[in-house]
Design brief:
2 domains; 9 strands; 12 helices; about 270 residues; two-stranded antiparallel sheet; Rossmann fold
Length: about 270
Amino acid sequence: MKQKIKSIIGNVLINLFPKKAARLEAKGLTMFDLNSSFFERQMRYAILSNVESKKKPDHLSKIHNNFWVYQGINVFSTNNSFRDNFLPNCTFIFDIVKEKYFTSENQLTTLVEIGTGNGDVLNYLESNFPEIEKFIGIDLSKEQIKINKEKYKENLRLEFINADVLEWVKTEGRKNTLFVTSNGVFEYFTEQQLREFIKYVYSLGKVLFVTIEPNEKGHDFEMKPNSIVYGGERSFSHNYCKIFQDYGFTIFHHSKKPMMIYDCEMNYILAGN
């Protein structure tokens, strides 16, 4: 009932203030803005619900894309995810990578972090993988990439690029690369976008993925093998292991941890060909 009332109020406001609704959507609506007004919150809920109900995943993905382009810098400047989440919960999977791939002659020459944000994760990985020659951080936020370039200008092994990785990989993707996503990037891709990306990357040759991504808690992949929309962000819960395997990748590691304050569980996946 509460959601229905929010939807009714939001749709009334959208009809009364269509230009304001269009501006909100153009800026992106992924994360809840604590500074938004009551009216803006209801409009946000209605816009996302309407797009979802019309089964338009590309439209929903575009809204997410807009958010990270125009508002990502606001998230990165206040986010303590590296300290509070990555260091205590995610480093173990990179220990597995080192044990499996760096005990003998290393073939991996480049590490690409998709959705690098403020660069903290990429900087950590650079210090822990001296065997890798080049570290590239890609992000949609032009302003954040500019900040990262200045912040890490003394580290010549780090390169930061403002780009959509779906387009970047078509011209710059290379074999012998370790691709990394940390704590939610692919969740904003549609299933079709994710499949196209994984399929193309597989064609590059020798590559490795460390994918740290959330799913809806209890998403039953036997009953619902395809991606679904879930949560307050209306992001996508993907069947990651199946998608990787559909295009020839081998899953070397897969584990999960529940996220206590969210309606999701985090997947830790190591996949390669």
